[in-house]
Amino acid sequence: MQNSEKIRITLGGWRQESEDRMKRPVAKSFQDLIVWQKAHQFVLSAYRQSENFSKKEMYGLTSQFRRAAISIPANIAEDFRKKSKPDKFRFMNIAQGTLLKSAVII
């Protein structure tokens, strides 16, 4: 196996992703981040989906799901201006954990 094949197998889709990232302009706002845009779409979808939840759950499951959903892009936005890697890691980790919480609720 050639070295280039090893890299492709080891990194999977990461190499293409890395090449694409180099073509994108630097984000000037958290709204320029693709991860934030996807999280925002998730919030809109969560609100649409939760409209179908039982009305008895309006102040329980529905509220918790909506709060969790909105927390994801909020943490990504808050992370955007953080300078240190530990701070950035912490906010992205919170966003990831909240996404998992949302998945459990669904």
UniProtKB/TrEMBL annotation:
<dbReference type="InterPro" id="IPR036583">
    <property type="entry name" value="23S_rRNA_IVS_sf"/>
</dbReference>
<dbReference type="InterPro" id="IPR012657">
    <property type="entry name" value="23S_rRNA-intervening_sequence"/>
</dbReference>
<dbReference type="Pfam" id="PF05635">
    <property type="entry name" value="23S_rRNA_IVP"/>
</dbReference>
<protein>
    <submittedName>
        <fullName>Malate synthase</fullName>
    </submittedName>
</protein>
